[in-house]
Amino acid sequence: MEIKIAGLDYRIAPLDVRAKFAFTETARREFLHEISPFAQEAVLISTCNRTELATFGDCEPAELLHRSRGCGSFFTLKGEAAVRRIFEIAAGLHSQIPLEDQILSQMKEALTASDEEKCCGPVLNQLFRRAVTAGKEIRTSYKEMPHESSAASAAITAAVEYFGSLKGLRALIVGSGEMGMLAAQLLRTKGAEVLMTQRRVRKDGALPPSGVKVIPFDERYSAMKESRLVVCATASPHLVLETEQFPDDGMPRLLIDLAVPRDIEQAFARRASVTLTDMDGLGQQPLPDSFLREIERKLEESTLGFARWRQVRECMPYIEDVCAFAERELTQELGCAEGEEYSRVSEASRRMMNKLLFTLKERVDIDMAKECYCALAKAAQK
Asked: Quick check: 144 pLDDT over 70?
């Protein structure tokens, strides 16, 4: 059985194609439930940048995606390449905004959903946890390097370039999720007057940044009349701003759509007074080569660490056989009957054998250690 990953991202699929394969949280859980009979382990990552399905087993993740959403030009990786891909995603190397922070929480959410749907197991659980940890360490180690850290920060940078200054500018944020909250906070630091729509109180109890006025979602069009900057970042599967609902009043506006699928109808771009941009139009600044080399070193360490964990895990059945043999032989030799004495002798024999066997893997190459464990297990079985 192998670790595999298949999917698409912004590098190989434009936004409209990515929207076709985007999964809401409910849809993700339904999908995981559907594929659980075919995949021993599976984790689905679905963000504005990508939809990627990681599996462990004999199934083909690309086929599972095709079956759910139809044809798509998916890439497929397996083995070491698939493992490396997951570590690189966590590092932010495959994000439109290099090293953006949101991908870490998105990967944790993907792992949680898979675990709750009983579609995850020890291999992908360990892989994703190690990848997220490596991603955090990379960001901590290199946090002084100047770079955009989220799509929201890239959006605000684009707004500053467009308007020159945001001080006193009326801005509307449609969506009160993580991205919307961050955009509102950044706009406030630039001196903008910020309105934010909210459909319901957030489950985590998070409140909008200080100075942000919250309005009902249904009042978005009236609020838009007085706003020169509009940032949309909802998880809605449908458009939330449509031209039919908002006649052209000639006011110059910058509309930034951070959602996949789109929040803003593309017809707005045909208005002379409107500039409309989306995730694919924000652009990105490449990371310096020296920075990339340091990240590469960290990823190499992390992937090797995971490979070693898998090798040790594969040895565990052999180790268990040897420990069980030692426990059985020692208790019989000492004539221990069931009870407290039996338990003490049994535990002592296991501690002794574990100490010996695990020391072996530290002293020799793991492949050689595995051969030794296998030979000892066969001897114990005979």
From this structure: no
Q: Pick the closest to residue 211 from 243, 252, 170 (CA basis).
A: 170
Burial 210-237 (b: 16+ CB within 10 A, else e): eebeeeebeebeebbeebbbbbbbbebe
Residues 6+ apart with CB under 8 A from 102: 47, 150, 151, 178, 179
Judge whether 51 and 24 are in contact, CB under 8 Å: no
CA distances from 279 to 9, 92, 173 (A): 12, 15, 16
For 350-356, what is the mean pLDDT?
75
Give 359's pLDDT tier (boundaries 50, 70, 90).
confident
> Which residues have a Cβ under 8 Å from the Cβ of 334 and sit 6 or more positions away?
345
| pLDDT at position 315 | 67
Give the CA distances from residue 272 to residues 253, 279, 281, in Å, rounded to whole numbers and listed in that order.
10, 21, 18
Q: Quick check: 303 and 281 in contact, CB under 8 A?
A: no
| Cβ neighbour number for residue 352 with a 10 Å cutoff | 14
290 neighbors 282 (Cβ within 8 angstroms) = no
pTM: 0.78
Number of H helices, E strands in the chain: 12, 10
Please give the order of strands across the beta sheet that includes 213-216.
213-216, 193-198, 170-174, 229-232, 253-257, 274-278
Residue pLDDT, tens place only, 72-96: 789 999 999 999 999 999 999 998 8
For position 317, what pLDDT does the model report?
Answer: 73
Who contacts 281 (Cβ-Cβ below 8 Å, separation ≥6)?
Answer: none
Residue 55: beta bridge partners? 4, 42
The Cα–Cα gap between 241 and 246 comes to 8
Asked whether the predicted pLDDT for residue 148 surpasses 60, the reply is no
